[in-house]
Design goal:
Helix content is about 35%, strand content about 25%. It is α/β, with parallel strands linked by helices. It folds into 2 domains: about 1-80 and about 170-250, 3-Layer(aba) Sandwich (Rossmann fold), CATH 3.40.50.300; about 90-165, no CATH class. Strand 9 (about 215-220) and strand 10 form a beta hairpin. It starts with 5 loop residues before the first strand and ends in a 6-residue tail after the last helix. The relative contact order is 0.18. Bound molecules: adenosine-5'-triphosphate (ATP) and magnesium ion (MG). The site of adenosine-5'-triphosphate has 12 residues, from strand 2 and helix 1.
């Protein structure tokens, strides 16, 4: 049987005396879409930071396609096909839409990131960037300065950056944060299409209807612990989950 695309084994993360995450064990089968939900401060972004290597766990281990990557830096994990978007945008605001994607594609391919030298058109990173922008329907915006994009367009641009990097496993931290309600269906459809192509997705998202619609498995974090994990229907019906969310919308 194929190993899970991503696995957390008894992960713990402490800062000073504070326990941020404790004993989190989670397997994400290849090709599945896991929705990660939980109240503010539950540890969702911290878990993604551990999974992609921005921070190191205090205990436990992380596997990517069956290989232990616990000690690998984020760039090494990225080269193994793990892509990540952040809760707040990390785009180069003063560069064009196209340059944002091309630079990411170039870094992924191990090339130099010389801002000043014009890329050759035949450059594989440029080709990947064009294709990714077309995929998220941002081709018309490709020469615009990124700062001028709407929140929804910036979120699509972040997905294009992942596509151009050829990441097979995507960690998305609130990919719909800050976008207008009318942009949510388009972003949902895009994430659904990435999943349908066989990519593995871990998505932190507060829009519960989106999570239920897209995820085949939902994991719930609460105060740094995994409270429940199962099908969307089972998780929503779970008494512990209901109690954890009592008084606030899921
Ligand atoms: N480096 C750090 N030092 C101290 N506390 C931290 C650190 N990183 C995270 N925390 C704390 O860990 C907890 C979990 O934070 P995290 O950002 O992972 O939550 P979250 O589930 O992503 O929340 P949100 O839904 O608001 O994005 C919070 O209480 C946060 O204040
Ligand atoms: Mg967060």
């Amino acid at each position: 049987m194929a190993p899970p695309a991503l696995a957390a084994r008894a992960l713990g993360y402490r800062v000073g005396g504070a326990i941020i995450l404790e004993d989190v064990t989670l397997e994400v089968p290849a090709g599945s879409l896991l929705g990660l939900i939980g109240p503010n401060g539950a540890g969702k972004s911290t878990l993604l930071n551990l999974l992609n290597g921005v921070i190191r766990p205090s205990s436990g281990s992380i596997e990517l396609n069956g290989a232990d990557v616990t000690r690998l830096r984020p760039a090494r994990r990225a080269r193994l096909g793990l892509g990540r978007t952040f809760q707040t945008s990390t785009l180069f605001e003063s560069l064009s839409v196209f340059e944002n994607v091309r630079l990411a594609a170039q870094v992924q391919r191990g090339g130099t990131t010389n801002f000043w030298r014009a890329p050759r058109e035949a450059d594989p990173a440029s080709a990947a960037a064009h294709e990714a922008l077309e995929r998220v329907q941002l081709t018309e915006q490709s020469s615009r300065i990124t700062a001028g994009l709407s929140h929804g367009e910036k979120r699509k641009l972040e997905l294009a950056i992942l596509l151009a990097s050829e990441a097979r496993t995507l960690l998305l931290d609130e990919p719909m944060a800050g976008v207008n309600t009318q942009d949510i269906p388009e972003l949902s459809a895009l994430i659904s299409a990435l999943h349908a192509e066989g990519r593995t997705v871990v998505m932190v998202e507060h829009h519960l209807s989106v999570v239920i619609g897209l995820a085949d498995t939902v994991a719930v974090l609460d105060s740094g612990r995994l409270l429940a994990c199962g099908t969307p229907e089972d998780v929503i019906a779970n008494d512990d989950v209901q109690r954890a969310y009592l008084g606030q919308p899921l």
